Amino acid sequence: MPSSFRRRRIVWSIILLAAGALFYVSIYGDASFFSLPTSLKDLGFSPSSSRAGQVALAKLKDITGRKSKQVPEIHGLLYFVSQHPDRTFNENEGGIEVLGKGLVKVEPESPVELDVYAPDGRRDWDAHLKVMQNDIPVVVFSKTYCPFSQRAKALLETYELDPPPLIVELNTRQDGPLIQKILQRLTGRRTVPNVLVHGTSLGGSDDVHALHEQHKLKGIFEDAGVEVKAVWADLPVNEN
After folding, report:
1. What is the pTM assigned to this prediction?
2. Boundary (domain end) residue, out of 62, 92, 124
3. Are strands 166-169 and 138-142 parallel, antiparallel or unpaired?
4. Does residue 32 sit within a domain?
5. Given this model, what pLDDT does residue 34 score?
6. Least packed by Cβ within 10 Å: which of 28, 41, 230, 238?
7. What is the pLDDT of residue 64?
8. Is the model's pLDDT at 32 over the cut of 90?
9. Per residue in 218-229, pLDDT tens?
């Protein structure tokens, strides 16, 4: 039988362990430590672990955060022109004021940080993408005086799309040339019109007319969740 000394030692060990657990919960607010994911256990993380374990956890959180924000830049651009129509990339001394970053100068030939496309600091990109997908699936970059732009917009009008396309007239924007260069980098197309469906470029006027003549354009819109209300959307367009 164990001696009374050993029994007391066991009892005190249990008491100290319980006290330590209660102290941890009172400090950290929950007992989630006792059911740590295997991935964190493998990293050696615990409230009393080494600094290396804590650094490993920080890296894991950083990687997870970056993975959740891997949004294609084109969606950032579309969000910017649709949700911040009064803001421009060169609104102040050739740059744009971005909350938390100050004045940022946009170099259109280089990747632009997503934060710049949400200059007000609202950077819930999951929510932004849902808005774009549901409310603004079709975006047309155009110029008011361009005959090719006018031709493409006239074709799209015959489809009576719902939601209707967002038309961005680049010649009315101070940063129009910057946006054209960004579009060239992201879509491979610098000229207007540039018709995009969920961030994918269908091309210009000739391209969308070719899709129309091939009876493919209506299906593209419908597959994208856009309602085509026009009964005669697939019929040849009389441009006379």
Report:
1. 0.71
2. 124
3. parallel
4. no
5. 41
6. 238
7. 42
8. no
9. 999 999 999 999
Tell whether 223 and 134 lie within a shared domain: yes
Give the tokens for residue 224.
Answer: 């994208």
- Kindly state whether residues 156 and 220 are assigned to the same domain: yes
For residue 85, tell me if it sits in a domain: yes
Asked whether residue 10 is assigned to any structural domain, the reply reads no
- Answer for the pair 213, 161: CB distance below 8 angstroms, yes or no: no
Please name which of 166, 108, 75 lies closest in space to residue 96, comparing C-alpha atoms.
Answer: 108
For residues 33 and 47, is the Cβ–Cβ distance under 8 A? yes
Average pLDDT over residues 169-178: 98
Show the CA angle centred on residue 198, arms to residues 237 and 217, nearest 5°: 25
* Integer angstrom CA distances of residue 95 from 108, 224, 232: 12, 34, 46
Tell how strand 96-98 and strand 102-104 pair up. Answer: antiparallel
Same domain, 185 and 207: yes
Number of domains comprising the chain: 2
94 vs 112: CA distance, rounded Å = 15
* Poorest-pLDDT segment among 9-18, 35-44, 106-115: 35-44
pLDDT greater than 50 at residue 125: yes
The domain containing residue 84 runs over which residues?
73-124
154 and 115 within one domain: no
